């Protein structure tokens, strides 16, 4: 079973912020696959279903971003998964708005949500899909940037990036992660 986990912060205050693109991704995947995100647990909101012939769990941790590892730990324990059964989707400031990057493993690269997950699962070896949210403006700070909303010109770019991310995951499930990386990591170049 694949655990598709989108990172973000819970609550309406954070909806549509840069930090919550992982939640937007999960919402889109749920809509496309007709999977209801109806299970509300202490550590995650989730739904189960099938995508491209695979059993999947779509999940949004109910912990704040910096404690994402708690939600992941709950999901792995609940479904008997290993870190390699994960695909974590999250925001990335090092990528321009609209770019996506699928990887089989990697470091946290300064992302506190991924840092928390790595500390919890004791490995960097789990697939992840980063959605570019761009850098803060010159002399801007990262926290207000990721907790801020996209500008009007950025919104169509991020909406397309979330759609591209969903297509990349569909490709990964239908074919494999290497084909998906080759096909979708160049979009937006």
Describe the structure.
The longest helix is centred in the C-terminal third of the chain and has 21 residues, at 154-174. This protein is α/β, with parallel strands linked by helices. It has 6 helices and 7 strands. It has a single domain, classed as Peptidyl-tRNA hydrolase (Rossmann fold), CATH 3.40.50.1470. 37% of the residues lie in helices and 21% in strands. Strands 2-3-4-1-5-7-6 form a 7-stranded mixed sheet, sandwiched between helices.
The residue fraction in helices comes out at 25-40%
Q: Can you tell me the residue ranges where pLDDT is under 50 for at least 5 consecutive residues? A: none
The fold-level CATH name is: Rossmann fold
Largest sheet: 7 strands, mixed
Total domains, how many? Answer: 1
Estimate what percentage of residues fall within beta strands.
15-25%
Q: State the CATH class.
A: Alpha Beta
CATH-defined superfamily: Peptidyl-tRNA hydrolase
Over the alpha carbons, how many angstroms does the gyration radius reach? 15 Å
Offer a quick outline of the entry.
By secondary structure, this protein is an alpha/beta fold. Helix content is 37%, strand content 21%.
């Amino acid at each position: 079973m694949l655990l598709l986990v989108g990172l973000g912060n819970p609550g309406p205050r954070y909806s549509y912020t840069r930090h919550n693109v992982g939640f937007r991704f999960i919402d889109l995947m749920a809509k496309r696959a007709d999977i209801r995100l109806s299970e509300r647990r202490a550590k995650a909101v989730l739904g189960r279903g099938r995508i491209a012939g695979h059993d999947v769990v779509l999940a949004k941790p109910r912990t704040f971003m910096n404690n994402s590892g708690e939600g992941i730990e709950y999901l792995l324990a609940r479904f008997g998964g290993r870190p390699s059964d994960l695909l974590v989707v999250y925001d990335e400031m090092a990528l321009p708005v609209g770019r996506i990057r699928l990887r089989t493993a990697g470091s946290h690269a300064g992302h506190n949500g991924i840092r928390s997950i790595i500390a919890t699962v004791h490995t960097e070896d789990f697939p992840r899909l980063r959605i570019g949210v761009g850098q803060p403006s010159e002399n801007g700070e990262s926290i207000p940037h990721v907790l801020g909303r996209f500008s009007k010109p950025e919104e169509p770019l991020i909406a397309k990036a979330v759609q591209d991310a969903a297509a990349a995951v569909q490709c990964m499930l239908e074919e494999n992660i290497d084909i998906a990386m080759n096909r979708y990591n160049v979009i937006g170049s």
